[in-house]
Amino acid sequence: SEEARRTTRAVLVRDGITPSDIGQGALGDCWLMSAFACLAEFPGAIENLFLTREVSPRGKYSVRLFDDRIGTWRVVSVDDCFPCDDDGTPLFAQSHQGELWVLVLEKAFAKLCGSYAALDGGLTLWALHVMTGDHVFTLSRDEAGGAWKRLDMRMQPTDDNPRKVGLYTTPETYSPEQLWQMLLGYDRSSALLAASISSQSGEAKRTDGLVAGHAYSLIRVVEVGVFQLLQL
């Protein structure tokens, strides 16, 4: 962290925040990195979480996150001491060109949840809620019938587990075509979208190149002729 503060290359944000700034490290928090990437698609969205807007000479940073234990936003303050390997490379969240914002925001989530270990595995939905304070929901595919059903996420935090939630089935179901039209509409209205593939045995690469058990940010939804395309 001392080296990060002294180098002229270290910045909190360089030339704006984009989804490509973000890389996952050794921690199993792809769900959180996916949420960061979702928000990073929209200029100013991540920046608005930071009360500290540039590299701090004291190595102290303050971030706003929504805490359901108190039902409102709270300020989470962290320092810039990040877990690193022997050559000084951060072990967990990664960024490019000396940007610190990804590492700071990940550490703020770790503090909110109690530790870095508490970030191992989670729901992108919850992270989006914490960064926006908004209502979130998910759509799950019925393997038998092929229809998509809506589940609403309800917060059930406890003192020692701010991430505790319940997913509750609603009467709403959608055909694949209805789902596609919904995605088009949400993308056009600049909604935050994410996707994942269920897996019972951790992450596993599929023949189509996608990884089951991994969380993706959904950046664009477009139709080109007869083709329905998603950018992950």
UniProtKB/TrEMBL annotation:
Pfam families: Peptidase_C2. GO terms for molecular function: calcium-dependent cysteine-type endopeptidase activity. GO terms for cellular component: cytoplasm. Keywords: Hydrolase, Protease, Thiol protease. InterPro entries: Calpain_cysteine_protease, Papain-like_cys_pep_sf, Pept_cys_AS, Peptidase_C2_calpain_cat. SUPFAM superfamilies: Cysteine proteinases. Belongs to the peptidase C2 family. This is Calpain catalytic domain-containing protein. It comes from Phaeocystis antarctica.
